[in-house]
Amino acid sequence: MADYNAHTYYGKKCLEYLSPEVRDRLVTDHTAFQMGLYGPDPLEFSGLGYGKVRHYHAVWREEVLPWLAESIRGTDPTARSYAAGCLLHFILDEKIHEAMKPWVKEGSSHYRLELALDSLVLQEQKIPLMPRLCVAHQDSIHHVFPGLSPNLYHMGIGVMAKVVDWFRWRGEALYRKVTQKEWDQAWYLLKLLEEHVPDGAKALEDCLTQ
Ligand SMILES: [Zn+2]
Ligand SMILES: [Zn+2]
To answer: Which of 28, 40, 120, 154 could form a disulfide with 56 if both were Cys (CB 3.0 to 4.6 A apart)?
Structure first.
């Protein structure tokens, strides 16, 4: 399951970092922004497959960023809010996946590291129970990646929401599988996330002023 709580936290921090004028220009539809923060990850649950989602992460700067920047500068407030969240999704993933690579080679699990990071993020905010997934409203699914069927996205996020619901109450056993080393690495990831808040905010501003 994707580390959607870490992405939510990062998005919140980046918005707080921006000046109120820029923030209000960028994000007016908070549901669309929240969904953007999930990035393409819900598509993993759509039957489209992990390969395609991995592809989006690998080539996001070349293939997705131009479209995101265009939506951010555009006039549709829902598309702008969605794209702002989505940009922050890719930026955080890039930083975190980069840091995780050598650890995964040494035996840590990508999946458990993200699980641990999500848990630390919730502890940091004193949120006792994992929040439910924000599910697509009809307006924002039209702004999901160009060339992709909104139905596919809708299906993916629906399944992901069910997985999250299961996880909220029965995920405890999975946390027990996280090793001490992975918890320590996840702490480092949390620090990394916080250090990169100015970068995320700057990337958003750059899109507006390009
Ligand atoms: Zn992702
Ligand atoms: Zn990941």
So the answer is: 40
